[in-house]
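--- STAGE predict ---
source: upstream dedup step, 1 unique chain passed
mode: sequence only
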Amino acid sequence: MDIGNWQSFLDRWSAQWIAAQDLLDPEEYDEEDVAAGLGFPPAGEQGTAALEERLGTRLPPSYRAFLQASNGWRYTGTAVYLLGVAEDVHWHRDPLGLTPLYEENLDERSGQDEILRAGMWKRSLQLSLDSDMTDVLLDPGDVGEDGEWPVYVYKGWSGEYPDRYDSFADYMEAMYREFHRGYSDRPEFDNEVTRELDASVERARLACLAGGDVDELLVVLDRAGSFGRERARRLRDQMAAMLGPAGYLADTVDLDDPLYVREILPVVVAAEVRYGGSTDEEWFLRRYEEKDRPRVEAALRDAKERTFRYEAPGPFGRAVTEAREQARWGDTDAAWRTLAAGVAEWEPYGPEQVAPVGLMADPVLGPVITPERGRRLLRTARGGAERRRTGPLPDVPAVGSGAVSVAVPEVVPVVEAAPAVVAVAEADPVPEAGLGWLAGERGEHSYRLVFVHGVTPEALAERLGAKGPLLAPCNEQDMWGLRHWSRGRGRGDAVFRVGSCAGGWTFAFERGPETLQPGRLSGLDAEVSRGTWAISIWSERHQAADEAFPDAFRFSYAEDGRERFGSTARGGGAESTGTPPEGLDPALFGAALVDGSGPRLDRDAETRALDAVAGTFGVALPRFAVRHGRLHAARGTSWIRPPGPGERYLTFSRIRGGTGS
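--- STAGE serialize ---
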């Protein structure tokens, strides 16, 4: 970067540092330091030229310009006490012998940045003259198009790679921000820069509520946050959480504040559960006061058990309730449209909130908000009461307009308010028609799928032998854990998810079911159709199908407790019974799935068969909900094991060329 007016920049820094010393304890106050300030008289052209002659090279532009304003600098960052005095800077020469340590890690895969870093120790100019085991090195071996040399800062006590800055100006600007961060928690630290930073944050908040450009607003908030302005970090974290996996959110811990309790805390504990694994909860709870820990423990429980329900006041709260009901049964597209239409009526809890961030912690609704959809919500004008109170957005210079000094952050650009309601159709992903996408899944993708018409998901789970009420909504990862927990205890339970889809159909879906055994197949295919009609599909694929473990595909159609048509393809052979429903071509099943493919199913033929079923019956499995969302789960009776004591299954076998019963 180009600081431009070095004298103005350094004078401002020194004056603010002097003023900040009044905030220190008297024992930390050094009157001589304060009287001297941070800078020195300029080296001038003569002193700069003498240094270049001694070094045998011309200095990079920004360090040269710095010397014209001040021959050195004190207290640059937390560990460098004297920097850059022309008479004392010298070639580093790698006195600690770090070059071999870095070079031994190089190989043919090493990038250019790694190669340059390994070689810079011997050739760099040492700028730090008094420090706490910290080297500030200018590298002449990596000259940019602008003539600048990068700066490396190596903290010998850290054991980490050196930090790299593109130029001396970049390094000094970063150290100026670090100085500000060191005093940002003191309200008394007040100057023209902190005031302009805080004003830019407020303008960014209003622009965000008006649906302003998300990326430009993030730049402004990031800039203010880099100076330690905590409000900028809080607002920025809320926006970022709407654009991706929500994690830590900067905020003041206050369990009496509804913003923290209802929006921030749920996101924080959800991230702890998601990333913490076996992390000691006691360590997490130590962040909170003793009196608050029971409430935080309850929030952790809600996150673990997926029972947290995001709630919001007013009309948006009603939209959230409606959307959850849609999403938990699989209609995630409708849930998204409901949220997108309702967010215009969302109101923040106060001036420290710009988005309904707690929505991202809801186990059912959070997955509905993809990064693209989160951006759409942020681009929707919302918080109407707040915007009406504050009036129109101020007319301010655009980012990068050059209207302010480099030491003062850029301000929020002029924004045009977004439409009150998002054009939701543009944000919706292209829907996957039919069922054919199931055959296109990569890798091991065995699945069991049952459709029943005119029954509720709870009733379908009961027909499939569900034991007890439905479980909390689960995603695919949750289901993997449930399935392996069951099988690890020697139980043959089926573990599946249920939901609703178009045309009055209800579905049950299990990925990775037990091995298909047609000779012991239970009568559930027919039993689930009592009083209605049902479709059952079972596809089994193996990573390396062979004669011992061939792929298999079974399709069954049943009405009122009786199977009307069934077809099984396996091991290079196929068999069918009954009459297919009108409009469904039986040639798509059986031999067509295995013809010429031996023990492996023909993927294209499976796709055609699945899409034919979808077209004939008007069914579709909601791909987004199954792959990315959470649906209610159930543990049911094994679909293949023999009946246990007190159980009765309808079982049947097939004889090639005949009818089995």
